UniProtKB/TrEMBL annotation:
Protein name, UniProt field: Alpha/beta hydrolase fold-3 domain-containing protein
Gene Ontology molecular function, alphabetical: hydrolase activity
Domain Alpha/beta hydrolase fold-3: 80-304
Pfam family, one: Abhydrolase_3
InterPro entries listed in its UniProt record: AB_hydrolase_3, Carboxylest/Gibb_receptor
TM ranges: none
Length: 326
C-alpha cells in the first residue's frame, strides 16, 4: 500500500474550504483560525486584556479589554460586546488576528470591550452559539444592576451602561443582528438598552443569487457550502431565517432594539450585496433609528482582520470607533 495513501478511517469525508475538513471517522481538522495568544498588555496600544468566565455552569467565557484609563477622576466609557467571525466553525477570542483588532478598536474608541467565546460547529449545534451570546449579553446587563461586590471591576468602575453596543464581523455581525432582534421581545436584566450595533461585512445569504453572486458562481457555491455545513434546519436551506433576514419567516427589521446601526461592506466581498440589501431594507422597514453604511473600495471580506495595519483597515476601525462615540 502506498504509505502516502490515507487509511480508510482517516479519508476526508467533507472539506469546508478554507476552514476545516471532516474525516470519515468523524475527526475534524481545522485548517484556519487555530492560533492563540494570551491576554495581557498590548505594547502598541497600551490596552490591557484578561480572560474571564461569564457562566461557570456552562463554561461561557470572554476576553475583556480595557484602554489605558486613569485610576481616578475618569469619565465612564462605552462598552462594546463583540462577536468574532469564522463562519460559526473556526477562530476564537484568543485568535491573534482578532486579539490585535480588538486592541486597536478599544484604543481608538476609548471603550471597554468584551469579546465573547461562543460554541462552534461541529462540536456544538449552531443554535448554541446564539444562546451563548445571548447569555453573555444577559450577563452584561446584570452587571449594571448586580451586587456591588459581585460585579466585574472593569465594568463596575469604568463602563457607562447607557452606551452599550453590539458589534461583530461576518458571523459575528449576524449574531449581533439576531441579538438586537431578540432584545425587543426578551427583557434584559435592569432593562438594559442597546444603543447601537456595528455590522462589519455581515454574514447574510440566500438561495437566489443577487448582485455579484450571479456571475461569481464558484464563490456563491463556496458560501452555500459553508452555511449548509453549519445550518441547523433539516433542509439546509440558505433561506433559513438565521442566514437570510428577508424571507417570509424572518422578523421585520423594524423590530431591532437599538437606536443606531452602522453597516460596513467591502467592494470585492462576495457578501457585499447582502450587506447593501440589509441597509436598503432597513431604510424601507420603518425602523426609526439612525443608520449609515460604509463601503471600502478595492478590498475583500474582513480584510481589516488579515491586514490590520493598512490605511484602509485603520480607517475602518476609526469609523467604527467614531460610531461608538457619536
Amino acid at each position: 500500500m502506498d504509505p502516502n495513501q490515507l487509511k480508510p478511517d482517516t479519508e476526508i469525508a467533507l472539506e469546508v474550504f478554507p476552514y476545516l475538513r471532516v474525516f470519515k471517522d468523524g475527526t475534524v481538522e481545522r485548517i484556519a483560525g487555530t492560533q492563540v495568544v494570551p491576554a495581557g498588555v498590548d505594547p502598541q496600544t497600551g490596552v490591557e486584556s484578561k480572560d474571564i468566565v461569564i457562566a461557570p455552569e456552562t463554561g461561557i467565557s470572554a476576553r475583556l479589554y480595557r484602554p489605558n484609563l486613569p485610576q481616578e477622576n475618569h469619565k465612564r466609557v462605552p462598552l462594546v460586546v463583540y462577536f468574532h467571525g469564522g463562519a460559526f466553525c473556526i477562530s476564537s477570542v484568543a485568535d491573534p488576528l482578532y486579539h490585535h483588532s480588538l486592541n486597536m478598536l478599544v484604543a481608538d474608541a476609548n471603550a471597554i470591550a468584551i469579546s465573547v467565546e461562543y460554541s462552534r460547529v461541529p462540536e456544538h449545534s449552531l443554535t448554541e452559539a446564539y444562546e451563548d451570546c445571548w447569555a453573555a449579553l444577559r450577563w452584561v446587563a446584570a452587571q449594571a444592576v448586580g451586587d456591588h461586590h459581585e460585579r466585574e471591576p472593569w465594568l463596575k468602575d469604568y463602563v457607562d451602561f447607557g452606551r452599550v453596543f453590539l458589534a461583530g464581523d461576518s458571523a459575528g455581525a449576524n449574531i449581533s443582528h439576531h441579538l438586537a432582534l431578540r432584545a425587543m421581545n426578551s427583557k434584559l436584566p435592569g432593562d438594559l438598552k442597546i444603543l447601537g450595533i456595528g455590522l462589519i461585512h455581515p454574514y447574510f445569504w440566500g438561495e437566489t443569487p443577487i448582485g455579484s453572486e450571479v456571475t461569481e458562481s464558484e464563490r456563491k457555491a463556496m458560501v452555500d457550502s459553508w452555511w449548509r455545513y453549519v445550518c441547523p434546519s433539516e433542509d439546509k436551506s440558505c433561506d433559513d431565517p438565521l442566514i437570510n433576514p428577508f424571507t417570509d419567516r424572518s422578523p421585520s427589521l423594524a423590530g431591532l432594539a437599538c437606536d443606531k446601526i452602522l453597516v460596513i461592506v467591502a467592494e470585492k466581498d462576495i457578501l457585499r450585496d447582502r450587506g447593501k440589501l440589509y441597509y436598503e431594507n432597513l431604510v424601507k422597514s420603518g425602523w426609526r433609528g439612525s443608520k449609515d453604511i460604509m463601503e471600502t473600495q478595492g478590498e475583500d471580506h474582513v480584510f481589516h482582520i488579515f491586514d490590520p495595519n493598512s490605511e484602509k483597515a485603520k480607517n475602518l476601525i476609526k469609523r467604527l470607533a467614531s460610531f461608538i462615540n457619536e
